Amino acid sequence: MMKPENVVYMDNNATTRVAPEVLEVMLPYLQDYYGNPSSMHRFGGQVEAAVSQARKQVATLLGADPEEIVFTSCGTESDSTAIFSALQSFPDKRHIVTTRVEHPAVKNLCEQLDTLTGHKHRVTRLTVAADGTLDLQKYEEALDDDTAIVSVMWANNETGVIFPIAEMARMARERGILFHTDAVQAVGKIPIVLKDLDVDFLSLSGHKLHGPKGVGVLYVRRGTPFVPFLVGGHQEKGRRGGTENVASIVGLGRACELAAAHMAEENSRVKGLRDKLEQGLLSSIPHAILNGHKTDRLPNTSNISFEYVEGEAILLHMDQYNICASSGSACTSGSLEPSHVLRAMGVPFTAAHGSIRYSLSIYNTEEEIDFVLEKMPPIIAGLRQMSPFWKADA
Fold it and tell me: What pTM value is reported for the model?
């Protein structure tokens, strides 16, 4: 088994390591404090107090009120809950506005609503420019009286490109349309103050910010019409049935505290490491292309296409040196099709197939960047020598 200390991990947009401080606060609720938080006895009451504390910690990071935080199992559940809630709250409205570059959690759900329901619902998928950015005028034109909800990610999981959520939410609010953002990649990396925004729903996932897997959050603005997705007991004030995943919720709360404390580092040291990696790769490897806007993106994310080679082959060669990265979203890595995000951006076929996403965290070091910069040029050069596309253009 590969030893973690020997791994150069640059796949943090797929998942992150659990912070030691997070694991520490989780353990008591896996061993000693195992009571049900819904129970009337004091033993259960202690557990409920821990859940309440975690709710406050999450709310603080988001600039929200604790009562607006609903714990879920993951970001995907949160996305589905928001979209289905809006459609059920406004049954006479059948229109959904989203983008062509959403995470599969939203993209595939909208495809099902569009096709498997006999086109009962109408979906507008906004295009993006070559740098992955959205056209606000086209967005405004897409909104109409039949629109039940807008669902647009805060930051793209493959390129890191950040969308103008504040403006988009304001435009939706002016038309009386609910607004949801999948902020799974953004939370903990850039400042978010929901009290100052017109966002109605926001999704996040614990394992993207050094918390555990299997826990997420749906922010529901106070006063927003809401219909539960998981119907059962009275948990989460009737908004999500099922006994709470207490240890993971407690861990998520602590992870949110740590994210707030490390955000300045994320936007300075981690961004510096990303820029060094990016500049080194682009300068040392010919026919390497940066995908996404140069500045309007997450501080940890770099997506680079190496023309004339296959991303899967690159990853296999990187893996021989214990370097972990991705050729796109981890939720679509089993597909041989080029990234739907890069296709939407118009990235050429010879480049889209050779795209690698490097996503860093506070645990990455400059030594790791130097190691990757040493190994990547010969990897790409060797693969290109075997590529018929490279030989044809060489």
Answer: 0.95
